[in-house]
Write a structure and sequence with these properties.
This protein has eleven helices and two strands. It has 300 residues and is mainly alpha-helical. The protein has one domain: ABC transporter involved in vitamin B12 uptake, BtuC, CATH 1.10.3470. It has a two-stranded antiparallel sheet with strand order 1-2. Helix 1 runs parallel beside helix 5, helix 1 runs antiparallel to helix 8 and helix 9 runs parallel beside helix 11. The radius of gyration is 20 Å and the shape is globular. The protein starts with a helix and ends in a 10-residue tail after the last helix.
Length: 300
């Protein structure tokens, strides 16, 4: 097989782009599971809702208000995650907080049901095949010459932006006082209450952060992929595999594994394309056989 070096680099860069999305999405899952012990199966639905927030704000809100100007990309980048996060807080306050002391299976079933509801409602009103998002900023149009290849400017932005957000969240959780409060409030809530920490508020804040990250990933993904009610369900299984490989609840594991698996997927597409859609699950099986807690997880 004659494979050019430029073709390999192109696929690796596209793999890095996918890996950045995997890292950003799995980061939210890791935050929620690591601090709340909730298997948030609705994570893909929140990702989809973030993309729809950008689409609706740009194309549908002006029609509703009789305006010529919608919510642009940069505004959606702030408002989308905020709206999705507030929806997450409402769900946490009214439903999830009742399940913290019972088996993880109940939280998984609840969030799975919510994902089906969100997807079903939007499927009734929007095209399952997807709708394009036309709000990409003009400054991110075109391509950038990287020296070894020409790469789309927006995809390059999405990689850099996603990585910055991932490491900012890691720093928040691992290196700040707020992060220590969040860990204390979930690992030993009784002791945290004794020190005057508002544990319910911290739990709500944690869930807000986790689902807002999913919404943020959806807004960033909207100019690249078609905005569809099915876009979350198509991705969530892969993201769960990333979290399992990295270690359930490990923030750094989610970031590193997401990037590594995206790069691996891109490389496999060059050398053996039929394996590209399954290589992540093969890696997951091998890792679980060798280290059931995941690469960065803690054995219990």
């Amino acid at each position: 097989m004659d494979i050019s070096f430029s073709a390999v680099l192109s696929q690796i860069m596209l793999g890095l782009n996918n890996g950045a999305f995997y890292a950003l999405l799995s980061l939210g899952l890791a935050v929620i599971f690591g601090m709340l012990n909730v298997v948030n199966f609705a994570h893909g639905a929140f990702y989809m809702l973030g993309a729809f927030a950008a689409l609706l704000g740009l194309d549908y809100l002006p029609r509703l208000l009789g305006s010529d100007v919608g919510i642009g990309f940069w505004s959606a980048l702030l408002l989308g995650p905020l709206l999705v996060g507030l929806l997450g807080v409402l769900i946490e306050k009214t439903m999830l907080q009742r399940l913290y002391k019972v088996d993880h299976l109940y939280g998984l079933l609840l969030t799975f049901g919510l994902a089906l509801i969100f997807e079903g409602v939007l499927t009734n009103y929007f095209n399952v095949a997807g709708e394009p998002y036309s709000g990409k900023p003009a400054m991110l149009e075109g391509a950038v010459n990287l020296g070894f290849m020409v790469f789309p400017a927006y995809r390059l932005f999405s990689i850099v932006f996603s990585l910055l957000v991932c490491f900012a969240v890691w720093y928040l959780a691992e290196r700040t006082r707020l992060g220590s409060y969040l860990r204390a409030g979930t690992e030993n809530p009784d002791v945290a209450r004794a020190f005057g920490i508002d544990v319910p508020m911290l739990r709500s804040l944690t869930y807000f952060l986790g689902v807002a990250l999913a919404g943020l990933a959806g807004v960033v993904a909207a100019p690249i992929y078609s905005v569809s009610p099915k876009m979350g369900s198509d991705l969530i299984i892969v993201v769960f595999a990333v979290v399992v490989i990295g270690g359930m609840g490990s923030i750094m594991g989610a970031i590193v594994t997401g990037l590594a698996l995206g790069l691996l997927e891109g490389a496999v597409k060059v050398f053996y394309p039929p394996l590209a859609n399954t290589v992540i699950f093969i890696v997951m099986a091998l890792v679980l056989l060798w280290r059931p807690a995941g690469l960065f997880g803690k054995e219990r």
